[in-house]
Amino acid sequence: MKTLVINGVSHQVEAPDDMPLLWVLRDILGMTGTKYGCGIAQCGACTVHLGDEAVRACQTTMDMIDSQPITTIEGAAANSIGAKVQAAWLEKEVVQCGYCQSGQIMSAIALLSSNPKPSDAEIDDAMAGNICRCGTYVRIREAIHAAASA
Amino acid sequence: MIKNLHSRRGFLKGTALATGGILLSLQLPDAGRTRAALAASGPSPFVPNAFVKIDDQGVTLIMPHTEVGQGIYTSSAMMMAEELELDLDQVKVEAAPPDMSKYMDPNLYDQATGGSMSTRSDWMRLRQAAAAARIMMVSAAAARWKVDPSTLKVERGIIRNPAASQQLTYAEIAPDAATQPVPKDIKLKAPSQFRLIGTRAKRVDTAAKVNGSVLYGIDIRQPGMKIATLALAPVKGGKVASMDEAACRATPGVLDIVKSGDDAVAVIGEHMWAAKQGLEALALTWDNGVNGKVTLDTIVAKMDEASKTQGVVIRNDKNAQAAIDKAATKLSAVYQSPFLSHSPLEPLNCTLHIRADGAELWVGTQVPVRAQKAVADATGLAPEKVVVHNQLMGGAFGRRLDIDSIEIAAKLLKDIRYPVKMVWTREQDMTHDYYRPYYYDRVAAGLDASGKLVGRTHRVTGSSIYARWAAAAFKNGIDPDAVDGAAETPYDEDAVFTDYVRQEPDGMNTSWWRGVGPTHNVFVIESFVDEMAAASKQDPLEFRRKMLSRNPRALAVLNLAAEKAGWGQKLAAGHGRGISLQFAFGSYLAHILEIEVGKDNMIRLLRSVIAVDCGITINPDTVLAQMQGGMIFGLSAAMFNRITLTDGAVDQTNFDTYRVMRINEVPKIEVYQIHNNEAPGGVGEAATAAAAGALANAIFAATGNRIRSLPLADALGA
User: Fold this and answer.
1) ipTM beyond 0.85?
2) Which residues of chain B have a CB within 8 Å of the CB of A108?
3) What mean pLDDT, rounded, does chain A reach?
4) Any idea where the domains of chain A sit in the sequence?
5) For residues A3 and B57, which has the higher predicted lDDT (pLDDT)?
6) Is the minimum CB–CB distance between A100 and chain B shorter than 8 Å?
7) Are A102 and B212 inside 8 Å of each other by CB?
8) Comparing C-alpha atoms, which of B475, B467, B457 is closest to residue B503?
9) Which 8-37 residues of chain A touch chain B by CB within 8 A?
10) Which residues form the Aldehyde oxidase/xanthine dehydrogenase a/b hammerhead domain (chain B) (predicted)?
């Protein structure tokens, strides 16, 4: 039994050490906002924050988590940057199918937390790990700039 | 082009006849039936037709087409809210249940979402359905107040009688409205009266998509539900040779192992991790069967051979071959377009709860009736005993027009009595796709001494998707999709010969992929038109312009794109611009792409300029989004993607080997729209079809290297 602090709430979880956080969130805790896309850290759909760092939940196994707080898309709005990013996503009408957007938003929040006014190149660097099959990249860039100046 | 559209409709019509002759334009059940329905279901839902439901909870619009990200829920809701005199914040949208009698797409002859058809199919019927509902409610209010309905005003769902300061909400009048006669002659608003259509209204489906609360099929949870994942024979036709069931069952969290035939095995677990671990522990080995030696090369060799013999004639006007024989300049070439995977980011999945007397299916599907039938067939249940809960989709791109994943899940789970969510791993999804067919095109053309096109031939060789997916539409050996864009081009040309050779690939399933027939044919035609310009030393833009005397809308988009792209302005060394022009999905589109090819042959996409005329526009921001996204989808494939096989099995297993364009690789995209009140054209796939040709032509402009085989980054050897 392990205690995970997710979006400020403690959860007692019984899961094997090698089980990725992705499946703990989705299948044990029922927090389905974090998405499965590839399982090999190629697509970024499962991006969450472990402490202040954006990580791929598909590669973050239970034994890698100590006491760091975990933030998922469901808790993103609690942080002022997260709320700005979500608002910018809607204002710029970024979303199409939306499946990748939990991960995109979590990556964008991590970027803006460490770099409040990123350039296009810095956005590209920070966001290149997140695939969008609908091709919303142009608007993701616009929305990050909008959130940065909000 | 008109001829082509008509003939295509003709083909499609055959589908409907084969599936029972279902005809539908607009479902407006008579008031008597509505009253009966009302009596049965308690107080006050007003259900004037298949698309509108009004009760004390408000107005619900039933969506005949499914939301895959293209924004159809928003466009459909806008069309209906316009006639209902509501705003989008006043309506709820709901996926239609499987019901061909109500929700068949009248152009696709199936309850299906595809072919960039939704707005075209719904433009009249949804507005009529909404207007009928409004008219009945206004009539009911007029009857209650004993006034002439034409004296009443409606705004935001409130009916007002200005003469007496009376007002009623839709919810208040709905019970009365159900007893009103269904209007016969419905007068729709003229475009000049639109207050919602044509605006950048906000999407109705996105608020829940930015906070994690939205549910896709893969997010379904049911009480007592378990999770399964599967392994399919890596080679089509292969069979399980051995598996270690004991090791699998010993894996913590594994609950059961289920099989279907000899080629599908699934492990059910407490969670996906247990199911995955259990499947690994099974240590499956396979007998590969007859396709065990298939490679991409063996498939292409057969296509090359097949393409040497004349196929079924699609178009034969004015002896094109004789014109080419006499021409001053003769060209011929072979173009090849690869197998492609759909790879929507949400892997295939569905949740089934099968009981002795019925079943429930939760799935995101583009074809709900087929999905229902798949479960019925696998379980022996009557279709009406299978309840389908259609879900939002995490992309589809055509993949969810097939129901193989539902069929397999139902076969695997038919004896399991608790709910199970069957989730494909990305690896199973990518290696067991129904791929965009490989096409092998032989083209030839002749130009006279003045550089004018005098004759063109085009033989398309490839799989017929229609023959499998809608057999009735595959008539006389002609697949109307495989040749869409090959026989009819935007250009003035009289001497044209087009034929089609059906050649099914060994060991590969094929299906619709975003952009369908035009994606491959526009690449071929637009590349070859560029070759003609180069062979006669003409500017690619001028060469095209001269051939558009009969096609003013195509000329207009071409001119607009050229002006905005700065065609003719000098470019830096290593830079090139390429054009692609098309009429497809009922829309005109010109694309000019500027790129840079580095000394290392690396391609950088710099600027994509799109001019589009899609007729009357429901939501210009949706058009913009589809242009941006469709272009990136097409460029991603044109740059990087092809599916290959080794020993009968697909080589690409995940996004590490099937590269998807990322944010740092996309060009600047500019979209210019020509606004008019022509009938609406489709936009979901148009830009995808315009990607590869412009890219190939830009590479030629930059390097002098004519590449006739996709993907282009591979072909350049970068």
Assistant:
1) yes
2) none
3) 97
4) 2-74, 76-148
5) A3
6) yes
7) yes
8) B467
9) 15-16, 19-20, 23, 26-28, 30-37
10) 211-290
